[in-house]
UniProtKB/TrEMBL annotation:
Designated name of the protein: Phosphoribosyltransferase domain-containing protein
One Pfam family this sequence matches: Pribosyltran
Residues covered by the Phosphoribosyltransferase domain: 168-230
Species of the source: Streptomyces thinghirensis
Family to which the UniProt record says this protein belongs: Belongs to the ComF/GntX family.
Length: 277
């Protein structure tokens, strides 16, 4: 993939910005439209628009979630929708483009403020508090590559304290350019420590869903009781007919932390932070 196809970002001149300043900056970029509760015509699990039946009614789950992903993923919450000329570029930059490490700060700040408001929503929607917060490794151990999500989490101390690594190991690299739309049973292995645990699994983006579902598969094989995924972006594709109507709405939509995909009253955040404090 060519770096040149993605937009550039100008680092704000600042000293000692707080997480709220970074969320404001991210809002001003107009690239991170929030995923709202009850998005009409989208899959109840992966939140992408579903095809319609003969009567023009959207299916409540997409084919892949129905046939495969729902067996390993108990839930999924994307913070924003991601499109090629939007959040996708920022996530690509932070992972692949030298000199853009500073973009970890706005993304980690977004995650922190999202959890502050909506972790309780996720707990309520998916059966209670989480025991383990972990990430999907982006590199296999053999490649010696850096995993970018732990580095991102380090930019906000409170987040870094909440997450633990080592629950998942990537056993080999994805084939170049591969967009998995299926569960790969040998891509990850999970620590036996996850047995009986409720896992919140973070990835940067849900594109085809295959990577996240493969990670969830490994956790379930290791007897994790619940796996709920969380991602910054739910990727939409302009070349997919059923995604187009939603993509067309996104320019009018902003980053709005008042609501989430599973929004509702829940357990108080203070109760959660005490558990991990
Ligand atoms: Zn789906
Ligand atoms: Zn919420």
């Amino acid at each position: 993939m060519e770096a040149a196809v993605y937009q550039t970002f100008v680092r704000p001149k600042h000293a000692g910005w707080k997480t709220t300043d970074w969320v404001t900056w991210l809002t001003e970029q107009h690239i991170a439209p929030s995923v709202m509760a009850n998005e009409e015509g989208t899959c109840a699990l992966c939140r992408a628009p579903t095809p319609t039946d003969a009567h023009g009614v959207h299916y409540t789950r997409c084919f892949n979630c129905q046939k495969q992903y729902a067996s390993v993923l108990d839930g999924f919450v994307p913070i924003c929708y991601s499109v090629h000329d939007g959040l996708e570029g920022m996530l690509w930059r932070v992972k692949n483009s030298p000199g853009y490490e500073w973009l970890r700060a706005p993304l980690a700040s977004l995650l922190w403020h999202f959890l502050e408001r909506h972790l309780s929503c996720m707990e309520r929607a998916y059966g209670g508090p989480f025991d383990v917060f972990t990430t999907v490794p982006s590199h296999s151990e053999t490649r010696g590559g850096r995993n970018h999500l732990p580095l991102l989490l380090q930019s906000v101390t409170a987040l870094n304290d909440l997450w633990t690594e080592g629950a998942l190991t990537k056993k080999h690299s994805n084939k170049a350019g591969e967009r998995r739309r299926k569960i790969s049973t040998d891509l990850f292995s999970a620590s036996e420590d996850v047995a009986g645990k409720r896992i919140l699994l973070l990835d940067d983006t849900f594109t085809s869903g295959g990577t996240l579902a493969s990670a969830a598969y490994a956790l379930k094989q290791a007897q994790a009781s619940t796996v709920v995924a969380l991602a910054f972006g739910r990727q939409l594709h302009s070349d997919w007919d059923e995604h187009r109507y939603l993509i067309e709405q996104l320019p009018d939509r902003s980053l709005d932390l008042q609501e989430c995909a599973v929004h509702g009253a829940g357990l108080p955040w203070s109760w959660i932070s005490n558990r991990h404090g």
